[in-house]
């Protein structure tokens, strides 16, 4: 259930996050009173911080300390209380345009240069994947019922490679039971839809398929097939061992959150030896912050990250595109206590620049 905050509670949560980002020290009411014009007494600030703690948005690292934002607190801050820095966006755009000469450089040199600039400006680890070669071209797709409740999705590529995955048949929207013959007819209609929209296109264009064009009575197949096709595409791409350019590790290691050697070692191992897992995470098309005409930004905070080594971190990522097709990705990785306004602006500006550069 979403947490409903009053304007005062939002303002004090915002101030707490801003102070903690700047200082890395637990925040007390006195510090907020001195630094921000909150218009209330120290006692009122303490009471509100207590309410925010009970709501799970702040916590105390130990009894005598001030409060620290939780992952949930950062999530509300990012979604509702802040916006990308226009000044940083302009700074990134100017740095990329003046320091990189993409007309004269090789693509790899361009991406290396961009990664270095972004790690310096964001203070985070920058991750940029090399662009895909356009993806595997699809020749035929078929859904086949093989037993009660089970269907196989078969994908044939232009090179006559066959990929398949076994799926559970999604329930009917009204909960009614359907016999095998009816399911076969539904699967054929959906197969015809897939072939008419995807034949001759690359796997990288799967994310652009408009499932709303599927007749209303078959909409329950949409999300189920979208996930399955994306999984097949990830398997195919993962086998190509896509390279990720990594810059800025030394920048992040200066942060107090990374003072423990063991934590640093697990992150470096992920960056150096387990790039396949990381690639799937930052290239994955997921719901994120999106404005008209702007790249979609995905923000994973702390425990929202599925990979154990970075569950104490925030990962902000987006794709860059050739035309409308996502061909690569860019991300910044840092502590949950990062400057979200700047980091989101950095990723947005870089995504737009790289999309323009390779189109």
Spell out the blueprint of helices and strands.
Layout lengths: L6 H17 L5 H7 L6 H13 L3 E2 L8 E2 L1 H11 L4 H14 L7 H16 L2 E5 L8 E10 L2 E8 L4 E7 L11 H19 L23 H17 L5 E4 L1 H4 L8 H13 L1 H9 L14 E4 L11 E10 L2 E11 L4 H19 L1
Q: Can you walk me through this structure?
A:
The chain is an alpha+beta fold. It has 3 domains: 7-81, Winged helix-like DNA-binding domain superfamily/Winged helix DNA-binding domain (Arc Repressor Mutant, subunit A), CATH 1.10.10.10; 86-131 and 243-358, 2-Layer Sandwich (Beta-Lactamase), CATH 3.30.450.40; 138-238, Enolase-like, domain 1 (2-Layer Sandwich), CATH 3.30.390. Helix content is 44%, strand content 18%. The chain has 12 helices and 10 strands. Strands 7-3-10-9-8 form a 5-stranded antiparallel beta sheet, sandwiched between helices. Strands 4-5-6 form a 3-stranded antiparallel beta sheet. It has a two-stranded antiparallel sheet with strand order 1-2. Strand 5 (150-157) and strand 6 (162-168) form a beta hairpin. The longest helix is centred in the middle third of the chain and has 19 residues, at 180-198. Mean pLDDT is 83; it is low at 237-241. Negative regulator of class I heat shock genes (grpE-dnaK-dnaJ and groELS operons). Prevents heat-shock induction of these operons.
Summarize the model shown.
The protein has 12 helices and 10 strands. It is α+β, with helices and mostly antiparallel strands and 359 residues long.
Oligomer: single chain
Which sequence of SSEs, written as H and E, runs from N to C?
Answer: HHHEEHHHEEEEHHEHHHEEEH
User: How many domains is the backbone divided into?
Assistant: 3
**Ends apart, CA distance between termini:** 43 Å
Helix content: 40-55%
Query: Uncertain segments of ≥5 residues (pLDDT<50)?
Result: 237-241
> How would you classify the helix and strand content by structural class?
alpha+beta
Count of alpha/pi helices: 12
**Cross-sheet strand order for the largest sheet:** 7-3-10-9-8
CATH class of the largest domain: Alpha Beta
The portion of residues forming beta strands comes to: 15-25%
Annotated CATH architecture of the largest domain: 2-Layer Sandwich
How much is the average pLDDT? 83
Shape call: globular
Mind telling me the CATH superfamily name of the largest domain?
GAF domain
* Radius of gyration over C-alpha positions, nearest whole angstrom: 24 Å
Report the sheet with the most strands, covering strand number, pairing sense and barrel closure.
Answer: 5 strands, antiparallel
